[in-house]
Amino acid sequence: MSKKNISLIQKILLLSILILICVILILLILSKKQTLQESKLKPINSTFKMEELLENQNAVFKPLEADLSQAKVDEKEHFEANLSQKNALNNESLATDKNLSENLKELNLSKEQNQNLNLEQNLSKNEAKQENLKLVVGQKPKLAIIIDDMANEEQTKSLKALNLKLNPSFFPSHTLHPNTPKLANEFEFYMVHLPLKALSFQNKMPVLSPEDSKEEIEKTIAKIKDEFKDLKFINNHTGSLFTSDERAMRKLYKVLDKYHLSFVDSKTIHNSQAPKIAKEMGKIYIQRDVFLDNEDNVIYIKNQLLSAVNLAKKRGYAIAIGHPKKNTFKALKESKELLKSVELVYLSELYE
Fold first, then answer.
1. 155-194 pLDDT, tens per residue?
2. Whole-Å CA distances, 183 to 160, 229, 261
3. pTM for the complete prediction?
4. CA dist 212 to 4, 137, 215, 261, 325, Å?
5. What H or E segment, with its residue span, contains residue 337?
6. CA separation, residue 304 to residues 161, 253, 344 (Å)
């Protein structure tokens, strides 16, 4: 029932009460007048019945009570209808919130699925690149042997005397070895052995440190690139501290990418961040598989060469690192028959 109807009923009720009061007053006046007249004729008649008055009152009030009762019923029904409507709206709101929540979950799931899809696509691309590498490798196992720490003419002559297809990696020019760029040009293929800061080893030459800015790193790489014109690959000398630092490796990778250089991880520490940064930048991660001469012993070095050959046969290719030591050169010379079972290659034949 509307507020307008309730207000109308209230007005009618008030008017009815006023009329009733007037009726009662008239009746009382008439009754008093009649009593006075009868008192002159006979004794007061006490048989006036109050029931008649009460009946008259009931006749007036009962319809009003019925109207009020109906008004209460209508108001109750109106309240219940509003309550039901509110509940319906609340339920609808809850359903909407639930649907919204589900939609948001689906949206987040879609985003996560898209991210996973993008990750899978990137991984697929890297796997495709790796697969291309294997196709380049071909049927015969390939073995790339890097000789680090190349610094002087004597080492250069000893390496050439082996008459093996090896990958010399020269130190950047320094007062200790100023002629490395010139010596590198005597080889068909060469690399640069970049000194990076280690956890404990103290280098005698300048090293890149994790705290170096990108500009400082670029200054070093630009100088190297200028001195070694045909340079394509750089691997790290020491560098356990630097390569385990994610921010430092990100800076280095970005600079190397600018100068079209590829990083080869000598893997001087197990938690190198190079794999992560390579994947992040969409580059193939290149790493050393076997160290040949951690022990300066010919028999040990020959066994390490055998491990590298077996890995190449199993996987299709392998990368080993040695140093310009007399025992390393001797072990290589005495292992030529073993090395005939694989094809010795330059890194550029594997990764270009």
1. 999 999 999 999 999 999 999 999 999 999 999 999 999 9
2. 12, 13, 20
3. 0.64
4. 83, 38, 8, 19, 32
5. helix 336-339
6. 21, 30, 16
